[in-house]
Amino acid sequence: MTATTWDAIRPALEHYDEALPADELAAVLADPGAMAPALLAELAACAADPGPRMDDEAGWMLHLYAINLLAALRDTRAFEPLLAIARLDGDALEALLGDHLTESLPRALAATCDGGEAALQALASDAGAYFWSRAAALRALSLRALEGDYPRAELLAWLSAESEREAQRMVDEDLQPEQGSGSDYLGELVVTLEEIGAGELAETVADWYEDGLIDDGVTSLEDSQQRLARDWEACRADELAHGWGYPRDVIGEIGRWACFNLDEADAEDEDGEAEPQQPVRREEPKVGRNDPCPCGSGKKYKKCCGASA
After folding, report:
1. CA-CA distance, 147 to 210, in Å (whole number)?
2. Buried b (16+ CB within 10 A) or exposed e, 233-271
3. The CA-based dihedral angle spanning residues 13, 279, 52, 88, taken in that order and rounded to the nearest 10 degrees
4. Which of 95, 171, 101 is nearest to 132 (CA)?
5. Measured distance CA(35)–CA(200) in Å, rounded
6. Which of 90, 103, 195, 240 could form a disulfide with 245 if both were Cys (CB 3.0 to 4.6 A apart)?
7. Radius of gyration of the chain from Cα atoms?
8. 3-state secondary structure the chain
9. Are 71 and 111 in contact (CB under 8 A)?
10. Least confident of 145-159, 217-231, 270-284
């Protein structure tokens, strides 16, 4: 393409169009020095005033491109505005990000974090934050460890202490795990332990299952124990193979978003006319993000086949 200034490519990135803006995305990656400031400004504006980006009719996409492009560029300046977005209320986050909340956001937080693991831990621990933002912070921590940027031993020590505190809280308050709520936080912590193969805590996790502190309708005790028992290299191979590492082919990944791969059978109405489509963030998954993956792997859908959905 010949247009390489931000003003020239911005219109193609602001709003949804069925055609993937591959040339414009490539232009950003080719000249991050010139383009990144505008993407960073978009994230800051999104955190400060999310309302205009939540309008279905507008089909605003720039913040989604910004999250993914800055992650691919490993631009650490994006970390603070991403954290600010993650601390928005749940309704705003669902409208802004939809499934990107559990897919793009954790990877972006991980890829742009530069020694800010304490901030991710604080977000994960914050009972006042939206549950899926807390889960995203946990995924970001495990991804940094799996990518070799955060010592596994440090993460394991924090997860062990955090999990023990949460288990005790559930016992003290007589809580039962409920998916997608604060009482499921221990379950998300266990998923993170599984991701890094924390066999050291296998017996403790089994006790939590036996005490009813973990919802075995999502992942069985047997599957959890098998995942905990994996060695470190197996964990890295398994987890990163499902596309949960840092973005390395961001244009290819964006091109696989559902909004750029419309199912013609679903798009045709009874008269054979195409129905209007909305960006991927507005679509509900056919399988719940916290449901068992239908492939039978024992993982949650969001961590298995849903990672590339």
Report:
1. 33
2. eebbebbeebebbbbeebbebbeebbbbeeeeeeeeeee
3. -110
4. 101
5. 45
6. 240
7. 20
8. CCCCCHHHHHHHHHECCCCCCHHHHHHHHHCHHHHHHHHHHHHHHHHHCCHHHHCCCCCECHHHHHHHHHHHCCCHHHHHHHHHHHCCCHHHHHHHHHHHHCCHHHHHHHHHCCCCHHHHHHHHHCCCCCHHHHHHHHHHHHHHHHCCCCCHHHHHHHHHHHHHHHHHHHHHCCCCCCCCCHHHHHHHHHHHHHHCCCHHHHHHHHHHHHCCCCCCCCCCHHHHHHHHCCCHHHHHHHHHHCCCCCCCCHHHHHHCCHHHCCCHHHHECCCCCECCCCCHHHCCCCCCCCCECCCCCCCEHHHCHHHHC
9. yes
10. 270-284
pLDDT at position 256: 94
The rounded distance, in Å, linking the Cα atoms of 161 and 145 is 17
Domain coordinates in residue numbering, the chain: 6-308
Query: What is the per-residue pLDDT for 62?
Result: 97
Q: Are 119 and 218 in contact (CB under 8 A)?
A: no
Residue type, 260: F
Length of the chain: 309
Give dist(CA 296, CA 40) in Å, integer.
40
What is the pTM assigned to this prediction? 0.85
Which of 91-95, 216-220, 292-296 has the highest average model confidence (pLDDT)?
A: 91-95
* Average predicted confidence (pLDDT) for the chain: 88
Residue type, 132: W
Q: Measured between alpha carbons, how far is 43 from 67 in angstroms, rounded to an integer?
A: 8
**For 9-47, what is each residue's pLDDT tens digit?**
999 999 999 999 999 999 999 999 999 999 999 999 999
What per-residue string of b and e applies to 122-138 under the rule 16 or more CB within 10 Å gives b?
Answer: ebbbeeebbbbbbbbbb
**Residue keyed to tokens 């990656």:** 29
